[in-house]
Write a structure and sequence with these properties.
The longest helix has 32 residues, at 201-232. With 427 residues, the protein is α/β, with parallel strands linked by helices. α9 (201-232) runs parallel beside α12 and α12 (284-307) packs across α13 (334-344). It has 17 helices and 14 strands. It has helices spanning 10-21, 33-40, 51-57, 68-73, 95-108, 127-140, 162-167, 179-189, 201-232, 236-244, 265-278, 284-307, 334-344, 357-363, 365-368, 377-383, 413-418; strands at residues 2-6, 25-29, 62-65, 77-80, 115-119, 148-152, 172-176, 196-199, 315-319, 348-352, 372-373, 386-389, 405-408, 421-424. The radius of gyration is 23 Å and the shape is globular. It has an eight-stranded mixed sheet with strand order 3-2-1-4-5-6-7-8, sandwiched between helices. Strands 11-10-9-12-13-14 form a six-stranded parallel sheet, sandwiched between helices. The protein folds into two domains: 2-199, Rossmann fold; 232-424, NAD(P)-binding Rossmann-like Domain (Rossmann fold, 3-Layer(aba) Sandwich), CATH 3.40.50.720. Helices cover 45% and strands 14% of the residues. The structure holds nicotinamide-adenine-dinucleotide and uridine-5'-diphosphate-glucose. InterPro entries: 6-PGluconate_DH-like_C_sf, NAD(P)-bd_dom_sf, UDP-Glc/GDP-Man, UDP-Glc/GDP-Man_DH_C, UDP-Glc/GDP-Man_DH_C_sf, UDP-Glc/GDP-Man_DH_dimer, UDP-Glc/GDP-Man_DH_N, UDPglc_DH_bac. It catalyses: UDP-alpha-D-glucose + 2 NAD(+) + H2O = UDP-alpha-D-glucuronate + 2 NADH + 3 H(+). Pathway: Nucleotide-sugar biosynthesis; UDP-alpha-D-glucuronate biosynthesis; UDP-alpha-D-glucuronate from UDP-alpha-D-glucose: step 1/1.
């Protein structure tokens, strides 16, 4: 099938390349010229394992452009994968979704064939039918479900293992209302062996929020128990090993530490809270989930002060800047909050991350410009009075921590075994 993907970021690029691997032809659209140029040279603008190899292998089966018209006229189905960030008050910002819908609508005006538009971005229930649909109808002069198809197909991939997740998902959720669209998406996803759940459109939108909210809740719950464990001298990882053996609970997403960051959980939980309040609900669990998560990285500083009471003038090493390992993404990384606190306390910070140092400096100039970047984890260890572990990159398991003070937010076993002084956040 001929597929176009609007927005070539973490989701758009991975999804599009996934469709290429499944035998489709893909046209990527983006407003960012740098990304377009890189994609056309078969270079991924983001770091994601396996992506570069896939882009090299399938060169010629995909291309990128700024031109919506070209992309829509030369494809049968279009996925919208633009960002849906938070506004200042936590509510969802639909600016990019609205822009993309307008451009798609304008291009569809010139097209006679039945074209299917699929919202893949995470959007609140009602957005596809109440925002995307009327914009496309107005700009195209056509009617949804009659002249063009419309669906919502949330994405559940995790960064770092995104391609694997896209090609081997736990499930595929497809929100559709018309039979033709259902057939097109059924055919497109046919090669993927996973349970396929067809729902109406707003249910598909809600499944995405409920999933992310539950996963964030699971981690905040684990961290709350973990904080109690720490005071009682109990290893919360052992506790959750025991808890997770109950098949009703499952062992996953119980890694206690400094909490969740990233481009999804923070913004999606907040957007759901705002939406709930707007419609007269008070989501007390979700609010507590966010509060626990905001306090959690501060535990690392609290523990550090037990061993280094005066931070002024001290050099503190930070291992890891990405919000999780195997990605260069720094959106809502715990490293930002932690480094900000260190600088406020007058410490010097020397940091290292295998992939995310450039992004950290660009995204957070207020702290990113005030710290030093090391060339390796060894250099951080060599130059610091104490070390904080913020992201559990595999290579941090290879470092020599002997003689060091290490405060660990993610549980790097080598540090736990070999550091002179070691503290874990919840263990
Ligand atoms: N990152 C993830 O792991 C993940 C997983 C599942 C779902 N999601 C959801 O997918 C959506 C995209 O997330 P992302 O992380 O890929 O974002 P991203 O910021 O990495 O990518 C979005 C891309 O859209 C482009 N863009 C913005 N406006 C545009 C427009 N009008 N026309 C064309 N391109 C435009 C941007 O230049 C950017 O390249 C969000 O709704 C997010 O919640 C993300
Ligand atoms: O037991 C755990 C698991 C994760 N985390 C943290 O939680 C955050 C998110 O991790 P993860 O879920 O692995 O990464 P994402 O790429 O943000 O993926 C989440 O967000 C995506 C965007 O919506 C969804 O598609 C995925 O299903 C969902 O897992 C990171 O800061 C992790 O360090 C923990 O603290 N403990």
């Amino acid at each position: 099938m001929r597929v176009s993907v609007i927005g070539s970021g973490y989701v758009g690029l991975v999804t599009g390349m996934g469709f290429v691997k499944l035998g489709n032809e893909v046209i990527f659209v983006d407003v960012d010229e740098r990304k377009i140029e890189m994609i056309n040279k078969a270079q991924p603008p983001i770091y994601e394992e396996g992506l570069e190899e896939l882009m090299r292998e399938f060169r010629g089966k995909y291309r990128a452009t700024k031109d919506y018209r070209e992309a829509i006229l030369n494809s049968d189905v279009t996925f919208i994968a633009v960002g849906t960030p938070s506004r200042e008050d936590g509510s969802i910002d639909l600016t990019y979704i609205e822009q993309a819908s307008r451009e798609i609508g304008r291009a569809l005006r010139e097209k006679d064939d039945y074209h299917v538009v699929v919202v893949k971005s995470t959007v609140l229930p009602g957005t596809t039918e109440n925002v995307v649909k009327p914009i496309i109808e107005k700009e195209s002069g056509k009617k949804a479900f009659k002249d063009f198809g419309l669906a919502m197909n949330p994405e559940f991939l995790r960064e770092g293992v995104a391609l694997k997740d896209f090609l081997n998902p736990d499930r595929i959720v497809i929100g559709v209302l018309d039979e033709r669209t259902r057939e097109v998406l059924g055919e497109l996803y046919a090669p993927i062996d996973a349970p396929k759940l067809f729902t109406d459109i707003k249910t598909a939108e809600m499944i995405k929020y409920a999933s992310n909210a539950f996963l964030a809740t699971k981690i905040s719950f684990a961290n709350e128990i973990g904080n109690i464990c720490k005071r009682l001298g109990i290893d919360s990882w052992k506790v959750f090993e025991g808890v997770g053996l109950d098949h009703r609970i499952s062992p996953y997403f119980f890694r206690t530490g400094i909490g969740w960051g990233g481009s999804c959980f923070p913004k999606d939980v907040k957007a759901l809270i705002r939406k709930a309040e707007e419609i007269g609900e008070n989501p007390i669990i979700l609010k507590a989930v966010v509060e626990v998560n905001e306090r959690q990285p501060l535990k690392l500083i609290e523990l550090l002060r037990r061993h280094v009471p005066e931070l002024r003038g001290k050099t503190i090493g930070v291992l890891g800047l990405a919000f999780k390992p195997d990605t260069d993404d720094v959106r809502e990384t715990r490293a930002y909050v932690i480094i900000k606190k260190l600088l406020e306390a007058g410490a010097r910070v020397v940091a290292y991350d295998p992939k995310a140092m450039g992004n950290f400096k660009r995204f957070y100039p207020d702290v990113g410009d005030r710290i030093e970047y090391a060339k390796s984890g060894e250099e951080v260890l060599g130059r610091s009075d104490a070390i904080l572990i913020v992201t559990e990159w595999r290579e941090f398991e290879e470092l020599d921590y002997s003689g060091k003070i290490v405060i660990d937010g993610r549980r790097v076993r080598k540090a736990e075994k070999t550091a002179k002084t070691y503290e874990g956040v919840c263990w």
